[in-house]
Design goal:
7-stranded mixed sheet; Spore Coat Polysaccharide Biosynthesis Protein SpsA, Chain A; globular; alpha/beta; 8 helices; 2 domains; single chain
Length: about 250
């Protein structure tokens, strides 16, 4: 039977980390790489007896690769601090560990919650994401944001979803999208990529139409409207910030 390490990167996650750790106590090892949190994150982790190391923040992908390197087992289940594994999901993973792996990575559907509400439409479900992988063959891209595991050409699929407590409320959503758009702009600018007028003028309305109508975000009611509008604004913001950095505006 294969052994499994859980890897989690953290920074000021005291509101989430307890729930995440409780859901994976069945794993062989849990490794947390913390970026010098100033809240009770490390204290909570130590209460669970998990291994905690600290490293200055270097971007999502780089941080997750560093955390995987600390793990003693070959197979990794990477979780964000605001995610949890359901009891049914745990049983599915354990059954897979007892069998012979036929792929080098596996993806999960994700149930994304906005506050206490599961968002089913607008492209938020099934939101499949690769999280279980062989670290000797697969690693994260090392961009500042929107990290992905690669190679992604040999991926199996699991049935049970990860539970993702995405955003607590509208203020949390806007705050985080503002941060993500800044990281996106910095990364693109460093790579020499330029945002054109078509990105600014056409892609934001297309994002709204795709989210609200094509992906049926309207079925979520007012919250679906907010999500579609906010995603359109995020699309505009990330391109506008890229142009601003290129123009020397910071």
């Amino acid at each position: 039977m294969e052994k499994l390490s859980i890897t989690i990167i953290t920074y000021n996650e005291e509101k989430n980390i307890d729930r995440c750790l409780r859901s994976v106590q069945w794993a062989d090892e849990i490794v947390v790489l913390d970026s010098f949190s100033t809240d009770r994150t490390v204290e909570i982790c130590q209460r669970y007896g998990v291994r905690v190391e600290q490293e200055t923040w270097q971007g999502y992908g780089k941080q997750k690769n560093l955390c995987a390197a600390l793990a003693k087992n070959r197979w990794i289940l990477n979780l964000d601090a605001d995610e949890e594994v359901s009891p049914e999901g745990a049983e599915e993973i354990k059954a897979l560990l007892r069998e012979k792996f036929v792929h080098r990575a596996y993806d999960f559907p994700r149930k994304n919650f906005f506050g206490k509400r599961w968002i089913r439409y607008g492209g938020w479900y099934p939101d499949r994401i690769i999280r279980l992988y062989d670290k000797l063959q697969v690693r994260f891209s090392e961009g500042l944001v929107h990290e992905k595991l690669f190679p992604d050409d040999d991926v199996g699929s699991l049935r049970e979803p990860l539970i993702h407590h995405s955003f607590t409320d509208m203020e949390d959503y806007v705050r985080r999208q503002n941060r993500y758009s800044t990281l996106y702009a910095l990364e693109k600018s460093r790579a020499g990529w330029k945002a054109g007028w078509t990105h600014l003028c056409l892609r934001p309305p297309w994002m709204f139409l795709k989210t609200f109508f094509l992906r049926q975000g309207f079925r979520e009611g007012f919250l679906g409207l907010f999500i579609a509008a906010a995603m359109a604004f995020y699309t505009f913001l990330k391109y506008a910030k890229t142009r601003s950095i290129d123009a020397g505006g910071g």
